[in-house]
Write a structure and sequence with these properties.
single chain; about 300 residues; alpha/beta; Spore Coat Polysaccharide Biosynthesis Protein SpsA, Chain A; eleven-stranded mixed sheet; two-stranded antiparallel sheet; 7 helices; 13 strands
C-alpha cells in the first residue's frame, strides 16, 4: 500500500503577510508545495491530501490543484476554528486556529493508510521524502510505530527573525522526547539561542541539534489518540486565546505513555522556507539553483 502525503496548508501566514502557500517562488511560478508533491510522487507516495481553509478554496483549486489532475490523486479537507468535539464551543475573542495537530484531525475520515505530514510552506528536499516513503511502505509496520525526519537546527534557520522548532532527544534511533521551543534565533554572535519559557533564561542550541520540522510519518490510529488529547487540551487551554494544539506535544505524550514509538530518520539536507517576507528572495535563488543543476526539470507539472 502506497503512503499518502498530508499537506498542512491552512496557516494564516500572519508573519509573511499573505497566503504564502500560493506564492510562486520557482522559475516558472512553482509554489513550495509543488516541489513537495513532485518529490513525494518520485518517492512513491500514492495520494496527496491538503488541509486548507474554506475562504481560499477557489484560489487554491485554480492555482494549485489544477496542476496535479493528471499526475496524482488529490483530496481537500478543511480546517475551521469551530471544528470542535461535541460539548465544546469557540470562546469569545478566539481568532487563531487550533494548531497543527488539529489540522491533522480534519483528515480522519479521509485517510486509511500510513501517511506523512508536512507543512505547505517548507521545502524539505528530495532525500527527506525518499527516506520517509521507504519507512512508511514497510509491510511489517504496526499501529503506533511512527517516524519522523529529523533535521539539524543549523540547517533550518533564517537570518530574518525567530522560529519555532521541536527540539528532539533520541536514544538508539528512537525519539524519546520532543519539546516545542519558540523564539529560536541567531544572537549577535550568530549563536543559536532561545528563551526558556519555564524560567525566562536564554539558552543555546548546537547547530547539529536534531529538530522536528513537522515531517512526521504516522498510521491511522493516530487520529484516535489526537481526538482524546484534543479534549484534554481544550479542558485546560480553551480560554487561552493563542493556545495551539501542536503535533510535537501529542507525540511526546504518546511516547511518555508508552503508546507509540517514533523512529528518527536522519537527514543532513538543508530545509528552507518563507517564514518572513525577507526570506523570499533566498528561496527564489535556491530553487533556481536546483533547476539549473538538474535536480528539477524546467517544469515540474
Amino acid at each position: 500500500m502506497k503512503p499518502t502525503l498530508l499537506v498542512l496548508a491552512a496557516g494564516m501566514g500572519s508573519r509573511y503577510g499573505g497566503l504564502k502557500q500560493l506564492d510562486g517562488v520557482g522559475p516558472s511560478g512553482e509554489t513550495i508545495m509543488d516541489y513537495s508533491v513532485y518529490d513525494a510522487m518520485r518517492a512513491g507516495f500514492g495520494r496527496v491530501v491538503f488541509v486548507i481553509r474554506h475562504d481560499f478554496e477557489d484560489d487554491f483549486r485554480k492555482k494549485v490543484l489544477s496542476k496535479y489532475e493528471n499526475s496524482i490523486p488529490v483530496d481537500v479537507v478543511f480546517q475551521s476554528i469551530d471544528a470542535l468535539p461535541e460539548g465544546y464551543t469557540v470562546p469569545e475573542g478566539r481568532e487563531k486556529p487550533w494548531g497543527t495537530n488539529h489540522a491533522i484531525m480534519m483528515s480522519s475520515d479521509t485517510i486509511r493508510e500510513p501517511f506523512a505530514v508536512i507543512n505547505a510552506d517548507d521545502f524539505y528536499s528530495r532525500h527527506a521524502f525518499e527516506v520517509i516513503a521507504e519507512e512508511l511502505s514497510r509491510e511489517d509496520r504496526k499501529p503506533g510505530e511512527y517516524c519522523m525526519v529529523g533535521f539539524r537546527v543549523g540547517n533550518t534557520m533564517t537570518e530574518n527573525g525567530s522560529v519555532s522548532r521541536g527540539v528532539c532527544t533520541t536514544e538508539n534511533g528512537k525519539l524519546t522526547k520532543v519539546v516545542e521551543r519558540r523564539a529560536i534565533s541567531f544572537d549577535p554572535e550568530h549563536k543559536i539561542s532561545f528563551v526558556d519559557e519555564s524560567d525566562g533564561s536564554t539558552k543555546y542550541l548546537e547547530p547539529d541539534t536534531l529538530v522536528s520540522m513537522n515531517f512526521w510519518g504516522l498510521t491511522p490510529d493516530y487520529f484516535d489518540y489526537s481526538k482524546r488529547e484534543f479534549r484534554r487540551f481544550l479542558d485546560k487551554y480553551i480560554e487561552t486565546p493563542k493556545s495551539e494544539f501542536f503535533i510535537p506535544s501529542v507525540v511526546d505524550k504518546l511516547i511518555r505513555n508508552g503508546e507509540a514509538t517514533v523512529s528518527v530518520l536522519d537527514t543532513h539536507a538543508r530545509w528552507f522556507g518563507v517564514t518572513y517576507p525577507e526570506d523570499r528572495q533566498m528561496v527564489v535563488e535556491k530553487l533556481a539553483e536546483l533547476h539549473a543543476d538538474g535536480t528539477y526539470p524546467a517544469r515540474l507539472f
